[in-house]
Amino acid sequence: MGILIELLFNILLEVPIVRGIILSVIPSYFLLRWIRSKDYMEPEPPELIWKLAALGGLSVGLSFLLEMGLLYVLTRTISQDQFIFTLIKWFVVVGLAEEGCKFLMLRLCTWKDENFNCLYDGLLYSVAVSAGFAVIENIIYLIRYGNFTVLLRGITSVPAHICFAIFMGTWYSAAKKYEIAGDVRRKKTSLTLAIVVPALMHGLFDLLADLASTGAAVVFYLAVIVMFVVSWRQLKKMAESDAFLDGSPLAKILFPKFYESHPTVKSEGSEKNEAAEDARRS
């Protein structure tokens, strides 16, 4: 039986579209798996992660419809020769639309989920959505442009989607924490930043990629390296400082003014965090 499966697998690998699909899936799969492995405090249910990835894939269709509508309006409002057209196209039509659709799936699926109880959870959920989005987007590019484009996207666009997700997840978790603390204003601000920050990152990435095709490739790749480094540091900080949402040492670092104005935000979460820290030491 094992020999037959191996033979079938080898035959399938000879089919270009199969190789392309594998190339489309591998970067997202391993990045998601690696980031999930850093969920030290209370690992999330696998079924929730895969559900989020599937919703991320579905959001590609939703974002496509939204982008087509926005682009239709834009092309009839501003001349394509103007630089403002390019800015709006990448930052709003593409960046805001795609990150907004990802956020919608993230919010609908996890905001009230009982598993969402740690800071790192929001980041992981966001990454899962973006990983699913990147897979479907890769398959679309595979059909249109072939394997080489998918291979190139595997080291640029796919990790970029994950970087956007890291910052979306950071602010998403902050919003959840503020809701628990009863701070409506900061909750709304954090939810807004959970969309705006990744949308700006996404827009800048696409704009530089567009300019790279006209000779600014060095600027694009330098920007990509900087984004990867900053995102990795943020991921590392979130993983190492993870805590229950009702009492977080990381939040005290990121939002010191919040804790000065909310001195009572401790209680149960702090006890859980102290117990978790004791367990780590032991």
Describe the structure.
With 282 residues, this protein is an all-alpha fold. It has one domain (16-281). 83% of the residues lie in helices and 0% in strands. It contains 11 helices and no strands. Helix 3 (46-75) runs antiparallel to helix 4, helix 4 (83-110) crosses helix 5 and helix 7 (157-181) packs across helix 8. The N and C termini lie far apart (46 Å).
Summarize the structure.
By secondary structure, the protein is mainly alpha-helical.
Question: Could you tell me the strand content as a percent range?
Answer: under 5%
- Tell me the series of helices and strands, N- to C-terminal: HHHHHHHHHHH
- Average pLDDT rating: 86
Biggest pleated-sheet summary:
none
The proportion of residues forming helix, as a percent range, comes to: over 70%
Based on secondary structure, the structural category is: mainly alpha
In total, the number of domains comes to 1
The strand count comes to 0
The shape is globular
Radius of gyration using CA atoms only: 20 Å
Please count the helical segments: 11
CA(first)-CA(last) distance: 46 Å
**pLDDT < 50 stretches:** 4-9, 264-271
